[in-house]
Fold:
Amino acid sequence: MNPEDLQPAEETILPPSPSEKSGSRLPLTALLAGAVAIAFAPIFVRLSPVGPSATAFWRIVLALPPLWFWMSFKREGIKSTPSPSSFSDFLYLSLAGLFFAGDLAIWHWSIKLTSVANATLLVNFAPVFVTLGGWLIFGQRARMIFLLGMVLALSGMVMIAGNSFQISLLHFSGDALSFSAALFYAGYLLSVKSLRERFSTPTLMAWSGLVTALALLPITWLSGEGLSISSFQGWTVLIGLALISQVAGQSLIAFALAHLPASFSSVALLVQPVAAAFLAWFLLKEDLVVWQVVGGLLVLFGILVAKRGSPLE
Structure:
């Protein structure tokens, strides 16, 4: 036998090329970048000239034109992507939009009935529900090392927000709403994970966003909040919220969910409260105590541990 015939077998054991390694890192990079982008949302909401429900409505409405333009551009490009065509397609896209509308509306209402610290802390328990849903829906059984990483990350999050956390019967309804918002956001992440197997990121974001906007309109009306914005600064804040937190942030997360497990993605998104605390300190001059810094480092360490134990796609 000619020794050269063995050459292909040797090539199969070569290590991955740098381009392959960088390609495998792209979804994680996109996920973390998306988490940082949505971390700007509390800053924009704080500066918004309208109420919380109206702010959520404008966030989605102002994001729709660039998302639909992106979807049309993608559809006319070299690589075509499927468009929703059946009743089940529109049903599942609508379900994702309703989950996201519920998350935004319920969480914004909870802020009125409990402290901001309580609302922020409880809504970020979504990874627990995503992990449970990933097991029930996708059959992904969590490994012990992943669960350890999730517990570490959640513990760090408690350290970040726990300094102002209050347990009181007066806050019970608001706390319950915040916890319910975590359920809705978990449902949104799992829906996006499933839909990304068929639809592109802009198609998913545009169609589900349309449903979210339609659902938020009556919610805003029932809350008694006005939608009018009279100042240039107010429009700037809302456009920034739409472009940075919705178009960029949520689209990057949707892109990453096509390549990463939903359970790990939800844990990695705990970077968001870490980034939000830093941005509040940097931009709004809010105090950042040593325990919050330690909590932020613990969140990052927990994400690294969870990554080692996350199920492969």
